[in-house]
Design brief:
mainly beta, Pectate Lyase C-like
């Protein structure tokens, strides 16, 4: 238990240092204030690159698109809800970032059909201390982007993933100190490489973390450290993209070069019959790409069903030592 507490403390300290280094703790407003009932989009149009816009409390309706570099949006008890007639170049989304060095923090974003907060083709987007609830596809997402920071957010109720990084061969993403629950996937990385996932609480999803290759391209090269991936026991039915899902902690499907270390992966068991479950599942991708050169070491992986699953495909995969009891095939927990 002392080891787990130390891991969590270190992860939080890392996240706080990232907040400071990215300017979250030090930047000051530059005179733009949006009161309840006023337009956030108009404030962005009037701002200059590098300006900060403070959005004061209350409900704000609309989809907000940011195409201007360096804009910082700060919510103060502000809630963003869908407009009566959704219209956005990013689908039915709350905030859509299509510029560089944009920061969004302090908002509650709920009930959008597609995305709560999304970066598309952006560099160095920073999404921090937001709450994304009941958004149709993803709570917070980044597509075709690099340098995205997703830090200290709360996401829940997404039909697909609470947090998503995809279509980004040079993602260099940081996903830290978030809590995500009540989704199909807590954290989903698809066709994306390079980044850090640290100090997150991922619980009560159908699948905690998924790293997916072959959809369409490679995935991997992420360091996954100091996370608590527990009680992902929800059951999600089959859909056009896959079979029923329940009881999976961390799944590597065709991923390569992953470092899964010092995580707490506990009690991820299915609540309905499924094809595969387990604390850590390492198998080939849907197109047949084998998992390669993945390291699963120094984790606490207990009370899962089973703790580790490997389909024996790929090469260079290491599974020892971990604190675990059961595996398929056997003996992956020995030594």
């Amino acid at each position: 238990m002392r080891r787990i507490v130390l891991m969590t403390t270190m992860a939080v300290l890392v996240a706080l240092s990232l907040l400071v280094s990215t300017g979250f703790a030090s930047a000051k407003p530059t005179g733009h204030v949006v009161n309840p009932g006023e337009s956030i989009q108009k404030a962005i149009k009037a701002a200059s690159p590098g300006d900060t816009i403070v959005v004061l409390g209350g409900g704000h309706h609309g989809s907000v698109v940011i195409k201007k570099d360096g804009i910082s949006l700060r919510g103060v008890d502000a809630v963003l809800k869908p407009p009566a007639k959704p219209s956005s170049p990013c689908g039915a989304s709350g905030f859509c970032v299509k510029a560089d060095n944009v920061s969004i923090s302090g908002f509650t974003v709920r009930n959008f059909r597609d995305f709560g907060i999304v970066a598309m083709g952006a560099r160095n987007a920073k999404f921090m201390a937001n709450r994304a609830f009941n958004n149709g596809e993803y709570g917070i997402a980044a597509f075709s982007s690099t340098g995205t920071h997703i830090i200290a957010n709360l996401t829940s109720g997404s039909d697909e993933a609470g947090i998503y990084v995809g279509d980004s061969p040079h993602a260099d993403a940081t996903v830290a100190a978030n809590e995500t629950y009540g989704n199909l996937f807590g954290i989903f990385v698809r066709h994306a490489r390079h980044g850090k996932i640290a100090g997150n609480q991922v619980h009560n999803n159908c699948l905690g973390m998924l790293f997916l290759a072959d959809a369409p391209g490679p995935a991997g090269m992420f360091d996954v450290m100091g996370n608590k991936v527990v009680n992902n026991t929800r059951a999600c039915p089959a859909n056009e993209e896959g079979p029923p899902v329940s009881g999976v902690g961390i799944a590597l499907l065709g991923a390569r070069g992953m470092e899964i270390k010092n995580n707490h992966i506990i009690h991820n068991v299915p609540s309905r019959p499924v094809e595969s479950s387990g604390g850590v599942v390492v198998v080939s991708g849907p197109g047949g790409t084998p998992p390669t050169n993945n390291t699963i070491m120094s984790n606490t992986i207990l009370r899962n069903k089973p703790d580790i699953v490997w389909d024996k495909s790929g090469s260079g995969n290491r599974f020892k030592p971990n604190d675990c009891k059961t595996s398929k095939p056997g003996r992956l927990c020995e030594g």
